[in-house]
Write a structure and sequence with these properties.
binds ligand LBIIBCTY; about 0% strand
Length: about 300
């Protein structure tokens, strides 16, 4: 059977370079991570296209976006890349039995996810009205940056530790100790997911955030959204507050989430997933609730 009868789908596909090269046999696409991760990070591809269309790239972004596009899935015939370098193309064609299998054709789920990500990028860019001082609502940026600090890990950790040091009631200490556990758990889980997914922050984001750690160059999920949702649930469960204050706590969490997109820090899906993740993290905290019964040693230390 001749190679021309190979049923490889025409490129590009959602997985990238699975199509035919100009000269050689179909080049199989080797994905470097799980399908979900690969598809979610595909956002970078749509993002770079988006940036190109809007014509508002900053210096150096063109190269970055181009490299992303190249990596993510342009047709090898249309865009030279290390895989389609002359030396690779000139390699002897192996016997039919050793020829690579054709790449997978795009599933409905992949196509739907890609469309969702493209819409997400477009919508998030439109909502990023405070992404810079000269943006449409640039004058509101300092206010939103204040909100950013209100949902940041450092003030929450510092405040909880301070409260623990000052608290004189065993019940108060128990709640604060669990809040500390919740905040640390949140930092760890968000760092793990960010490190796995590695979705870049929107290209219109200005990286001028208050204290970051290395994984904070990635945007999925929003750490502010996870923290806001988790702390909101925590506070509503463990503090006795009047209704207006309870409403205020919920509003704060929602506004912190929305402000992430307005500041250009995140896409909408980063924040939406962050809210869901933070909401569920509270279930973990509840499940592993630390008490003098479940963690006597810990409480012995704090009750001294
Ligand atoms: C003790 C210790 C390791 C503290 C780290 C606190 C810290 C730097 C947290 C990072 C908070 C942050 C910048 C999260 C990113 O939020 P996004 O909403 O931009 O994802």
């Amino acid at each position: 059977m001749e190679p021309s009868s190979n049923p490889t789908p025409p490129c590009p596909t959602p997985w990238g370079r699975t199509g035919r090269s100009r000269r050689g046999p179909p080049i199989p696409h080797r994905r470097s991570g799980p399908l979900l991760v690969s598809m979610v990070t595909g956002g970078g591809r749509a993002e770079s296209r988006e940036a190109g269309r809007s014509g508002s790239r900053r210096p150096g972004e063109g190269r970055r976006a181009g490299a992303e596009e190249n990596r993510a899935g342009r047709c090898p015939a249309a865009m030279p890349s290390p895989r389609s370098s002359p030396s690779r193309r000139a390699a002897p064609i192996p016997s039919p039995s050793r020829r690579a299998a054709p790449g997978p054709s795009p599933s409905c789920a992949a196509v739907a996810l890609r469309s969702l990500l493209a819409a997400d990028l477009r919508f998030s860019r439109q909502l990023g009205v405070c992404a810079g001082e000269r943006s449409a609502w640039g004058s509101a940026r300092p206010l939103l940056r204040l909100l950013e600090v209100s949902g940041h890990g450092v003030p929450w950790l510092a405040g909880t530790l301070y409260g623990l040091g000052r608290s004189e009631s065993p019940a108060g200490r128990e709640v604060l100790l669990n809040l500390l556990f919740a905040l640390v758990l949140d930092l760890v889980l968000v760092a793990v997911v960010k490190g796995l997914v590695r979705r870049r922050r929107p290209t219109h984001n200005k990286m001028d955030m208050f204290v970051t750690i290395s994984v904070d160059k990635y945007s999925f999920p929003s750490g502010h959204a996870t923290r806001a949702a988790m702390v909101c649930r925590f506070v509503l469960h463990h503090l006795v507050l009047a209704i207006p204050l309870r409403v205020l706590v919920v509003l704060w969490a929602i506004i912190v989430g929305i402000s992430r997109v307005m500041l250009g820090r995140h896409n909408v899906t980063d924040v939406a997933f962050g809210f869901i993740m933070g909401y569920m993290q509270y279930n973990v905290v509840k499940y592993f609730w630390l008490s003098p019964l479940s963690a006597p040693a810990l409480f012995a230390v704090w009750n001294q």
